[in-house]
Structure formats: structure tokens, C-alpha cells
């Protein structure tokens, strides 16, 4: 009897050890693999400050990995570092590779507003004369939308063609497009070969004050959507006079109907915190309903002649206050600006020196994030900290202006951010 009891105890211990081992194996399987870095010129920051504020977002990622049919939305807001699309685009690709691709997300008519556009899509028009409004303008030439820009035309007949780039946009075919326009603008209807495959729902009331959101649902995934304006009064054959419209258009949100991460990249050249600190703008941004808002700003503020950390901190807080008011359920992740150069003159000769203010801005952002209970990732430190711009420039990862970065440089920063976010998530999972 004693031997039998010992045998049973031994069996139970073995089973328990097997269960623990299996759980450990499952935990390993659940650990997010991290992509390798292409360059070794920085001090990788593998964790994010105040990670507890990201727990709801991490829970959303877990749901996607568990197979839940849902969409988790991220908005990455910034300046020219984001408008280029390489830094945020790398983050988007890496997240979607692990958790599912729900679509390309926000796209704006940058080229029509005569500025650079990300290289994975095109928005074109037969209209050449557009008036462009940008959030950085003191007196905006036309209203701006979710993307921080707007385009306006007085033409009585307007077309917009949306096309996903065949190579750079691979994987971003879409089956739904939400089109954001001014309330008094001519609505658009599908045209071209696919028009009979598109179901159109024109907005009857504004999504927020002054902004209409029309929806185009396509029977199957496509890479192109062609639209043309209509002056026809909805539900009638009556044509309204062209003079009764104020044709302002903002951009599109493209989705594919699949579960996964929907990543909206929104950046405007020259933008600062103060340019987005506008109640009407933040209310528009809230229409995207992000689970996570990544804010990558601060570089342009550091070029002011009299940069002041306290003044800058106040500007950051003012923006955060509006976000908390209109997006109370959104997790916020602040990132610090990387170091760059600034141009100066020595003995009447132009030269470049490190922009010491970026370090001050980084410290201020870390402090604000801590005091506001926000997550923060220190890109300044991750890219090497003080004097790191020399290394990035030497490796040819910085642009000719020594402020911006090359495609490779931006993609490396996107990888750094993704690694930091996933390492933070993996650590949180290990602690549970």
C-alpha cells in the first residue's frame, strides 16, 4: 500500500512537471519574435517608460493573436519625420506582420497640395490648381482635416483617383474607403471600370462639425478607386449651382475587412505640438477611434532661437489635455526626437553643429510623460544620445540637410520603436 501511494505521488509530480513544462513552452510560443537591427550605432532602449498605461493596447494585441475577429487602431501623429512614411511605415508593416493587416489606413492628397507623399500610394486629379491648407499655417488657406491638411478647388467638375503603388504598396488592396470632405463640398461618386462594383453611402449629417464622411464599399479588394464630383441634390435630379459649393477635401481611410492592426500615419512637414493643439482638429482625430496614439513631435520646436524647456513642456501638456478630453480611452505613447544638426556660420562660412536643443526637448518629454502618467519611448537615447547625429551621418543614414534621415535611417528607427514596444509587451507577459 505504501509503495502504491509513493507511485501515485510520483505520477502526480511528473504530471505537474509536464504541465509546467507545457505552459512554459506555450509561453515561449506566445513571446513576440523581434526583428534584427541593420545597424549597431545606437544604445537600444528595450523598454518603454510607464508601460502599465499600454496594458489595454497590449490586451488588444493578445486578442488578435488569439484569433479574435477585431480591428485594433493605431494613430501615429508627427511632423516631417512621419509625413515621409518610412519610420511609421516600418512600424505599420512590423505590427501587421505579427497581428494581422486590417488595411493601409489614412492617406492624404499631399502631392496635390504640392508636397511630398509616402511612396506606397498615389492620389491624383485632372485638376491642377488646388489651394492647400496646412495645420502649420498661421492663417490657413483652407480648412484642414484629420491629416493636418486640406485641398480646395473652385472647379465645377472635380475628380480624384486613389491608387495603391504596385510595389511599395503591396498588401494594401482595399475593399472600403471612407472619404472625408468639407460639409459644403460637392460629394463624389465612383466612376471608371469599377463603378458598378462600388456601393456608395453619402453622409447625410456631419461626422463632426464641418466634416462629412462618405463610405465606398467595394465587392472585392481593389488597388484603385476613381471618383468624380456630382452637383446633383441627393435623392433628386436637380443640379445645384457650382457657386453653392465650397469644395474642400481631406483624405481617405482605407480598410480591407480583415482583422488586424489598422495603422494611421499622420504627419505634416514643419508641424509642432501647437499646430495640433486645436479643439476642432482633435475632435476630428477622435473619429479614427485609436486604441493607441503615438506622438512623434518636438524636432521643429528645437530650432527656435530661444528654445525654453518649460515653455515647450507647457505646449505638450496643452495638447495632451485635449487628447485626454476627446479620446479618454486612448493610450498615449510619446516619443522623443532624435538628435540632428543645425546650420550656423563660423567666419562667414556655413557649417553644421549638433542641435543641443533636441536633448533638452527629449528630457522635457520624458518628464511630462512621467508626470502625466503616459508611456514614453526615448528615441533620442535609442539612436545613441548626445553626438549620435555624427554617427548616423557617417553611416549615410541622414539626409543632405542633416535634419531628416534616409529611407534606411527611418526604417531603422521604426524597427527600434517596434522592438521596444514588443520587448515591453513580452516583459509584461512574463510578469503575469
Automatic annotation (TrEMBL):
One Pfam assignment: Lipase_GDSL_2
The keyword Hydrolase is annotated on this UniProt entry: no
Entry annotated with the keyword Signal: yes
InterPro entries: Iah1-like (IPR045136), SGNH_hydro (IPR013830), SGNH_hydro_sf (IPR036514)
Signal peptide: 1-25
UniProt entry keywords in alphabetical sequence: Signal
Record-annotated SGNH hydrolase-type esterase domain positions: 258-411
PANTHER family, alphabetized: ISOAMYL ACETATE-HYDROLYZING ESTERASE 1, ISOAMYL ACETATE-HYDROLYZING ESTERASE 1 HOMOLOG
UniProt name for this protein: SGNH hydrolase-type esterase domain-containing protein
Taxonomic lineage: Bacteria, Pseudomonadati, Bacteroidota, Bacteroidia, Bacteroidales
Amino acid at each position: 500500500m505504501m509503495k502504491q501511494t509513493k507511485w501515485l505521488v510520483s505520477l502526480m509530480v511528473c504530471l505537474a512537471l509536464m504541465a509546467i513544462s507545457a505552459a512554459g513552452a506555450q509561453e515561449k510560443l506566445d513571446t513576440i519574435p523581434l526583428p534584427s537591427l541593420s545597424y549597431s550605432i545606437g544604445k537600444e532602449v528595450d523598454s518603454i517608460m510607464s508601460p502599465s498605461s499600454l496594458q489595454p493596447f497590449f490586451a488588444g494585441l493578445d486578442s488578435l493573436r488569439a484569433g479574435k475577429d477585431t480591428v485594433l487602431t493605431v494613430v501615429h501623429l508627427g511632423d516631417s519625420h512621419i509625413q515621409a512614411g518610412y519610420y511609421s511605415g516600418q512600424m505599420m508593416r512590423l505590427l501587421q506582420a505579427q497581428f494581422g493587416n486590417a488595411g493601409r489606413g489614412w492617406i492624404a492628397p499631399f502631392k496635390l497640395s504640392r508636397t511630398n507623399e509616402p511612396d506606397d500610394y498615389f492620389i491624383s486629379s485632372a485638376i491642377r490648381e488646388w489651394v492647400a491648407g496646412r495645420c502649420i499655417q498661421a492663417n490657413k488657406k483652407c480648412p484642414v482635416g484629420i491629416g493636418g491638411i486640406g485641398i480646395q478647388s473652385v472647379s465645377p467638375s472635380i475628380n480624384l483617383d486613389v491608387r495603391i503603388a504596385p510595389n511599395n504598396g503591396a498588401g494594401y488592396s482595399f475593399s472600403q474607403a471612407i472619404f472625408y470632405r468639407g460639409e459644403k463640398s460637392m460629394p463624389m461618386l465612383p466612376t471608371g471600370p469599377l463603378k458598378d462594383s462600388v456601393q456608395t453611402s453619402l453622409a447625410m449629417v456631419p461626422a463632426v462639425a464641418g466634416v462629412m464622411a462618405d463610405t465606398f464599399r467595394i465587392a472585392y479588394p481593389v488597388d484603385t478607386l476613381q471618383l468624380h464630383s456630382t452637383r446633383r441634390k441627393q435623392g433628386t435630379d436637380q443640379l445645384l449651382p457650382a457657386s453653392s459649393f465650397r469644395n474642400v477635401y481631406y483624405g481617405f481611410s482605407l480598410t480591407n475587412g480583415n482583422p488586424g492592426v489598422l495603422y494611421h500615419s499622420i504627419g505634416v512637414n514643419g508641424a509642432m505640438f501647437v499646430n495640433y493643439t486645436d479643439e476642432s482638429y482633435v475632435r476630428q482625430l477622435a473619429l479614427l477611434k485609436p486604441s493607441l496614439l503615438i506622438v512623434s513631435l518636438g524636432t521643429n520646436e528645437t530650432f527656435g532661437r530661444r528654445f525654453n524647456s518649460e515653455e515647450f513642456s507647457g505646449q505638450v501638456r496643452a495638447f495632451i489635455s485635449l487628447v485626454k478630453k476627446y479620446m479618454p480611452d486612448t493610450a498615449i505613447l510619446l516619443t522623443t526626437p532624435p538628435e540632428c544638426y543645425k546650420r550656423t556660420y563660423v567666419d562667414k562660412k556655413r557649417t553644421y553643429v549638433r542641435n543641443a536643443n533636441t536633448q533638452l526637448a527629449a528630457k522635457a518629454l520624458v518628464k511630462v510623460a512621467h508626470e502625466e502618467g503616459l508611456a514614453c519611448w526615448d528615441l533620442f537615447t535609442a539612436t545613441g544620445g548626445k553626438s549620435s547625429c555624427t554617427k548616423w551621418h557617417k553611416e549615410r543614414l541622414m539626409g543632405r540637410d542633416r535634419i531628416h534621415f534616409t529611407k534606411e535611417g527611418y526604417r531603422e528607427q521604426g524597427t527600434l520603436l517596434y522592438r521596444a514596444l514588443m520587448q515591453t509587451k513580452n516583459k509584461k507577459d512574463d510578469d503575469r
